[in-house]
Amino acid sequence: MPPVAPGEPPSLAAASQPAARPKPSPTPRPTPKARPLATSPQATAKSPARKTPKASPKPRAAVSYGPGSAAPLPDGSAPGPEYTIKGNAQSKLFHPPSSPYFGRTRAEVWFRTAQDAEAAGFTAYTPRRRGTS
Q: What are the start and end residues of every segment in region (Disordered) (predicted)?
């Protein structure tokens, strides 16, 4: 504490000085307990670590729709320049490049020709006629 000036009460001298902050004690933090990643008996048994396969630029393994069909690449693009027809597996419709929905269709399967798509059970997209009322 700094010296008190003559004639000044000690309480005023202390009030004019900033209060000193107490230093935190160096208390160690408790370390979190490790949790098991899996709780099944099979997963908790000691087994060698398995390597997960990495994505490759090859077409994904998918349901085969016969000759002339191929699964899309991981980014959804055609597996080769000869595949120009996009197929939607849910609707079973295919879209050639001339289709107005070709650009926005996410290909779940690619075909080389319309005949290949039809042989796989897909139908060409055709615009619906609006009913007259």
A: 1-100
* Unique residue bearing structure tokens 């000759």: 67
Q: What angle do CA 129, 131, 133 make, to 5 degrees?
A: 155
Under DSSP, the state recorded for 63 is -
Rg (CA), the chain: 36
Kindly report whether the global pTM for this prediction surpasses the value 0.90: no
- Angle CA 95–55–69, to nearest 5: 30
**What distance in Å separates the CA atoms of residue 74 and residue 53, rounded to the nearest whole number?**
13
The number of angstroms, rounded, from the C-alpha of 53 to the middle of its chain's C-alpha atoms is 16
Q: In whole angstroms, what is the distance from residue 88 CA to residue 54 CA?
A: 26
Tens of pLDDT along 47-101?
555 665 554 444 444 568 899 999 999 999 999 999 999 999 999 999 999 999 9
